[in-house]
Amino acid sequence: MDKTDEAVFVGVRLRPFLGYESRQQCLTASGKLISVVGEFPDKKKKDFAFDCAMDSTDASKPDYVSQEKCYEMIGRRMVQHSISGYHTCLFCYGQTGSGKTFSFMGKKSELEQGLLPRLLRDLFGEVESLRSLGGQVQCRAQMLEVYNEKVRDLLEDKEKAKAPEIHVHPKVGVYVDGATDVQIETLEQLQKLLETGLSRASVAATMRNATSSRGHTLFRLLMEKHEAHTVVSSEVFCVDLAGRENEKTTKVTGENFVELTFINRSLMWLAQCIQGLGRQARQRGNSDEVDGSSRARFRNSKLTLLLSNALAGNSKTCLLGTLSPAAVNLDESYVTLNFASTVKSIKVTAKRVAKVDKDSLIQSLNEELRSLKDQLNSATPRNAQDLDSQAGFIRNMMESYKARWEEAQKNADLLRRQKDDALQNLAISRWRFARATVKNELRDEARADAAIEQLHLQGTPPSQGTQSNGASPVSPESFEVHFDPHEPSEHRLPETGASQVESMRYQQSLSTNSAEMGAWLSHWRTPAASDSPMWPPIPSLVIYSKDPSFSGRLIFHAEEEGRRYVLGCSSRCDFQLPQTPGICPETCLIWQESGRLFLKPLGIILLPSAAIEVNGTRLVRAEAKELLHQDFVVLGQSFRFFVFTKPDPTVQALLFSGRAEEGANDESTNAAIRGIIAERACSPLEMERARRYLRALEEDMVSSTSSKDEFLKRAMQARNMIEDAKVFSKALRPHDGLSYELLTLSPVLSLHELGTPSLCIRVLKNANLAPTEVALWSFSTFQSRLNLMKNAYNRTFRPATPATDDPWREMTAFWPVGAAGYENHNAQLQHPVAINPPIPVPVYRTQLPAATTLSPQWRTPIQPFQIGFQAVPSTVSYRIPSTPAPSCTSSPRTAARSVRNLEQAASASPSTRYREI
Ligand SMILES: Nc1ncnc2c1ncn2[C@@H]1O[C@H](COP(=O)(O)OP(=O)(O)OP(=O)(O)O)[C@@H](O)[C@H]1O
């Protein structure tokens, strides 16, 4: 138990002059010193040192201590003490009219609020934050007045109030029986309570103070921190003492004179207690034992009994002495200074409050009650009354504790339920937020690059099995797992096409080690439409991914009650996760107990990348954490799950709505697709690919819908033009078997984020049934060549038509000039696109989806819908983000050269990041 021997913290404050006082100042405050100034021969001691001396005499002085500053100097320390688990006490002492109530309570305006309202505000702020962290803190307030040596409950009407009684219990300490104990939930409630209590305090006008307190006001805030079976209670005790009065100066009579005698007597007892403690402190040095006689003195009055814990017990105590600066009040002020000096010499041993076992305290009180009852049975009538009242007090105390703790229990349950609800909402809002940000995240280049790097580090180096042109023979199919809506759902694998690490890794694993992947997949289950709506049937973790096609596809069912399932990337795990950053061989345990789901991290999680998060809070210890319905769990850096402990159509709908929306897709896009692939049998798979391709276009390559539409229109136009070109070619060069394919050429090397891909036309010669590429035309070249073909065609059949240029002029170098109808203008070759001899597939060329390297994410090679757009199966493009990009490929030859340079750079420097598609 922490124990600190500390002198009482003493601060003194000089108030401003009041109307009745002449302006002769006899006291000054400077630093920690109060000095008596002027000629006062009977006042031998001139300087009094305290912990702080506050000058509030004149607001225009630079060192003027305002209400706020006063709180900073003396009050704020109490907040931390009580939150750290110490009892604390603040009391104000001084002659009547010296400013105790002003310092203690202040005025209503925020600027002039006194110590208590400020202290409660800050304290409650701390309590609220403890509660928000899941702590069960119960606050109870009492407000009492010791008036004419009677304890009054200020939280009850004067008429109704039954006088509370003070008891001292060896286990509980000073206990006020019969006082209203109000449970406080909010600061506003507390402030209202304070106002009500103050309005009931006894106040009267005297010659020295128009609002003189006629009794001592005590405010007690009890804070109980509840755990399952224990409670830690610390109290904040604030006392505004009534002021010492001189009957000659206050000129009170009658009832007020009676009050004066009680006030002065109780203050005398207090002074005696303080002197006794001061003497003891001087004699015994640092001993924290309070001797019997000092203890006994506290029983002399109600006030001292109530303050006994603060002065001689276990508390961190502060005293604020208030003084008038005027010479007319010097005698009274001198008493206050001496009193405060003695208090300063007292050492109070503050121990951090220990946890009390609720059950054992109740049990011991029960036993005490039983023994009192036994004594009562055998008691003489003389002491029977005493025993009876003692038994009554024990009974009350026990019942009060029981009720309080039951209430705390109820409260804890309520809070837990509210927290659960909040977490559910949080999970849903997180889910919504996650969905809303998918698009943005997809554009997060940094992540993608990290992922790409990861892929590269773990994946197949591009040099493996390269073709003659240096291109890797990675076929799109090798990465791709297609989603076929007609496939039975249990065979359906997560779709690719996402930038997320998990799906990348997943795909990579599929391509590199499908056997292993198959192994881990076999442990997982995928939901089927038929699962709805009572899904999932047992507590489950459902994967969430920013890739809607991956989200919800993997489900972990904690099927067997009590069985501890190990999740990790090791093959020994019950549920094997792909090896991604942050996934340890054995990451965590998950098990089900009576329908409740628990997760326990395995080992100490030191690496931030290996963190396990539940609803955004990182688990720092290897201890079991209950997973509640709709919690959001993150394993490592890449796996995110929603927790379902019961069937949940709402969230299930949320999980799957993404796909429904996807399926719905924009009708105009569907129509456009149908327009392009019109005559071809449109299988659902093709449709799906086309749709995804267009989405990729829309999201990543085409800056707006209008340019997407434009692109589609041009594609359709090009397709018709190709048909024309085929007809003209067949007529003009029947033996060459020329054919044309529509391709897209993306500015891969330009590294532009957005842009519309160019359409281009591949010219193939069908020599010996093996098509060879003989040229690649841009769309505009194709347009002009088509015109030339048209002219040549016309001239063939209508000789009057003027001669035209050779539409296939770049090919004439190795072709004999063919049929008439066009001139061979070899000399006019202007187009650098000429490739002679034809090279195998030029590396700059990509099939369209691969060209989506423009976007930061790793978009899976979605097969371009092969109907309108012919894919070149093994093309490779490179991207080196950290290397200055060559400008857009105006010339394929330049592009090819650039790519070769880049390839060389990549292989020469292993640290160069590059990307293989
Ligand atoms: N620091 C201060 N700044 C401005 N006014 C003050 C200050 N301290 C006290 N006063 C004024 O002095 C008067 C007396 O103060 P207060 O009622 O607080 O005295 P008190 O010590 O509580 O007296 P009592 O013991 O009779 O209740 C009030 O009018 C109060 O507004």
The level of helicity is 25-40%
**Strand count:** 33
In this structure, how is the largest beta sheet organized?
10 strands, mixed
Summing up helix and strand content along with how strands pair, one would put the structural category as: alpha+beta
CATH C-level name of the largest domain: Alpha Beta
The gross shape turns out to be elongated
Number of helices, where a helix is a run of at least 4 consecutive DSSP H or I residues: 21
Protein name: Kinesin-like protein KIF1A
Coiled coil: 355-425
Domain Kinesin motor: 7-346
Keywords: ATP-binding, Coiled coil, Microtubule, Motor protein, Nucleotide-binding
Give a description of the structure.
There is one protein chain. A hairpin with a 7-residue loop joins strand 13 and strand 14. This protein has 21 helices and 33 strands. It has 917 residues and is of the alpha+beta class. The longest helix is centred in the middle third of the chain and has 62 residues, at 381-442. Helix 1 (67-83) packs parallel to helix 3. It has four domains: 3-354, Kinesin (3-Layer(aba) Sandwich), CATH 3.40.850; 360-419; 475-664, Tumour Suppressor Smad4; 667-908, no CATH class. Helix content is 38%, strand content 19%. The site of adenosine-5'-triphosphate has 19 residues, from helix 2 and strand 14. Residues 355-425 form a coiled coil.
List keywords for this structure.
six-stranded antiparallel sheet, ten-stranded mixed sheet, 4 domains, Tumour Suppressor Smad4, binds adenosine-5'-triphosphate, alpha+beta, Kinesin, 19% strand, 21 helices, 917 residues
